[in-house]
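Q: Hi! First time doing this. I have a protein sequence and I read that you can turn it into a structure. Is that right? Here it is:
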Amino acid sequence: MDKNALSSFTKEELVELIQIKDKNLLALDGVWFQAAEGRQGMDAAMALDAEAWRRFSATEARRIRAFLRLPERCGLEGLEKALPLRFAWQANTCSLERRGDTLYYSVETCRVQEARARKGLPLHPCKPVGQVEHEVFAKTIDERISCRCLFCYPDEGETRGCRWAFTLEETK
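A: Yes, that's right. Below is the predicted 3D structure, encoded as structure tokens:
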């Protein structure tokens, strides 16, 4: 197949391929993390993971913002358009809810936590990395957006999902 091979697929096939690629990217992140965890321990793996997500989330946000042709100060409206285009959105079961001046993003079913549970591994303490990931993504979409974690493992015991609140700080 050459680089133009994608043009031979139907729209439905391309959507399916994107979903497969999103799941593969999340799987790559997971096996990378497990390798780091196995070799260097959870604390070192978490530090490496946070740095990787800091860099990746900014890159992903810049590319999505450019694809959507969003202005730099696109507010919560821009973030609401951008979040469903993240690879993790397609790989997990996610939802958005807008109430007043807050945008809520929820991961109801997390493939990472589900995979670790299936393998008999402890749940991933993803809150610190999730805070980095979501905050950097949002601020790259619009620097005025702040992110607050409402719950994320290990906050709520054995939960396998998370919920984040985004608000616009008008003072910047």
